[in-house]
Design brief:
The complex is a heterodimer of chains A (207) and B (240).
Chain A: H1 2-7, E1 14-17, E2 36-39, E3 43-49, E4 67-75, H2 78-86, E5 92-95, E6 99-101, E7 106-107, H3 123-129, E8 132-136, E9 148-149, E10 162-166, E11 170-175, E12 178-184, H4 190-195, E13 201-202
Parallel strand pairs in A: 1-2, 1-5, 5-8, 6-9, 8-10, 12-13
Antiparallel strand pairs in A: 2-3, 3-4, 6-7, 10-11, 11-12
Helix pairs in contact in A: 2-3
Chain B: H1 9-12, E1 21-24, H2 34-43, E2 48-51, H3 62-67, E3 71-76, H4 86-92, E4 97-100, H5 103-114, E5 119-122, E6 136-139, E7 142-148, E8 152-162, E9 168-169, H6 178-184, E10 185-195, E11 215-218, H7 225-230
Parallel strand pairs in B: 1-2, 1-8, 2-3, 3-4, 8-10, 10-11
Antiparallel strand pairs in B: 5-7, 6-7, 8-9
Helix pairs in contact in B: 5-6
The chains are: A alpha/beta (207), B alpha/beta (240).
Chain lengths: 207, 240
């Protein structure tokens, strides 16, 4: 999945990767493409995770992991960092999801469980401001429920914000509030995919 | 003569009063002014509203201030971390109030206060539960939420170097909320790793101009919060 996302990130893109699986995308950018990573806590030009022994508690990413900065990096305060996001300067953001709807609605910050401590971080700012939102997620939950749904039942992070969804079963495009299959994973048929998807899918014209 | 340096953290936080709104810089550990926070634990002001991105880890720093029951309400974007224990317990028991604000909106509400802007419109949170009860207005065919500025009585901020005029530079991603919080408080209190002579910071490189800063205290060797948390250290405060 991360590799598929990486293939769709163009040379010269400014990219923000969400915490968790989205972070893996950086490892798969094809050679010859230069991508600049933004981390919303205040760094443009984020490098790899800091090697053991070189961790700096004042150089972290949005997930509070110790990272490095590449030559040509820049540090800035939070209002500037979110001006980059809200102002539409970041090209692509890759996020995880609890649920994505066929209209491109995203739920990824809260399950609505009253016992959970609510926390949102920068997720709502990212989906509202970044030009293109990619979601990377397992197609179903651990209990087999589809995460690609007709309508999100969890509280929304943003409405009509997702452009493309990368799962272990397929790549789906949100086109005019409908989900169109862009690519099926190896050995996955459209029929199988639809059976495992709550939302209605449109078969790709290419296939 | 202007000299914003004070000699101790105790003196620096001495006038923080009960019920004050206090901004605390930092993104997790990075940029958190732990020595100033511990001085506030010692000082004992109660009923505080704290504005900070997170709600503390372990039992030191911001978590110690909360654990000491000095915080009535916290305004933050992400109150839970892997090692956050104090806030979740008090929150579930209904003993601390939470205003959850998206990170960028939080930064901009603080910046707006510092810039004399009472409110602004943002597309962040439109069509989400966090926009409930807020004014929505359309501009150029898109919906935006009205968000109000957050002004503070005090800001506690950590930086890398300062001079006696309060000009500041920061270190890497520890800058985070520092510059906007300095602007948004009536009294901004800074702990710097190094006090330098005026002019030692190139005017081209000053990040926070001294006009936004009121007190500076030098803490040459600040504690390493993550180390204290890993060792399960607890800050109990010094009775005054």
């Amino acid at each position: 999945m991360a590799q598929k996302v990486a293939m769709d990130i163009h040379d010269g893109a400014y990219v923000n990767l969400g915490i968790g699986i989205p972070e893996l995308v950086a490892g798969y950018i094809p050679e010859g493409r230069e991508v600049i990573y933004h981390t919303e806590n205040g760094l443009l030009g984020m490098g790899k995770v800091a090697p053991p022994g070189a961790e700096d508690p004042e150089l972290v990413n949005a997930g509070k992991k110790y990272v490095t900065a590449v030559p040509g990096a820049a540090y800035f305060h939070h209002a500037d960092s979110f001006a980059m996001i809200r102002g539409g300067h970041i090209d692509i953001c890759v996020l995880g999801a609890y649920q994505v709807s066929e209209e491109g609605n995203l739920a990824n910050w809260s399950t609505g469980n009253p016992d959970d401590i609510p926390a949102v971080g920068g997720a709502m700012d990212l989906v509202a401001g970044v030009k293109t939102i990619f979601v990377i997620t397992k197609h179903t939950t651990k209990t087999g429920l589809s995460k690609i749904v007709k309508q999100c039942t969890y509280p929304l992070t943003g409405k009509n914000v997702v452009s493309r969804i990368y799962t272990d079963l397929a790549i789906l495009d949100v086109v005019n509030k409908k989900l169109q299959v862009r690519e099926l994973a190896p050995n996955v048929s459209f029929k199988y995919l639809q059976q495992h998807t709550d939302a209605k899918l449109i078969e790709s014209s290419k296939q | 003569m202007i000299n914003k340096q004070v000699q101790s953290v105790k003196e620096a936080v001495s006038d923080i009063f009960d019920g004050a709104i206090v901004m605390i810089s930092g993104f997790g550990e990075a940029g958190s002014p732990v020595e100033l926070i511990h001085a506030l634990v010692d000082q004992g002001a109660k009923d505080l509203t704290v504005v900070s991105n997170n709600a503390g880890s372990g039992h030191v720093g911001l978590a110690a201030l909360i654990e000491n029951r000095q915080v009535r309400k916290i305004i933050c974007s992400f109150p839970r971390t892997a090692i956050s224990v104090v806030f979740p317990e008090l929150y579930r028991a209904g003993k601390i109030e939470l205003e959850l604000v998206p990170q960028g909106t939080l930064a901009e509400r603080i910046r707006a206060a510092g810039a004399g802007i009472p409110a602004f419109f943002t597309s962040t949170t439109v069509n989400t539960p966090l926009a409930e009860g807020k004014e929505i207005r359309r501009f150029n065919g898109r919906s935006y939420v009205l968000e109000e500025a957050i002004k503070a009585d005090f800001a506690l901020v950590k930086c890398a170097a300062a001079d006696k005029y309060g000009n500041l530079v920061y270190n890497k991603t520890a800058r985070n909320f520092g510059p906007v919080m300095c602007m948004a408080a009536n009294t901004t209190i800074v702990q710097a790793r190094k006090l330098v002579d005026p002019g030692a910071i190139d005017p081209e490189h000053v990040v926070t101009p001294g006009i936004f800063v009121h007190r500076v205290v030098e803490i040459i060797h600040p504690v390493d919060e993550s180390k204290l948390v890993a060792e399960n250290k607890k800050y109990h405060g010094i009775k005054q």
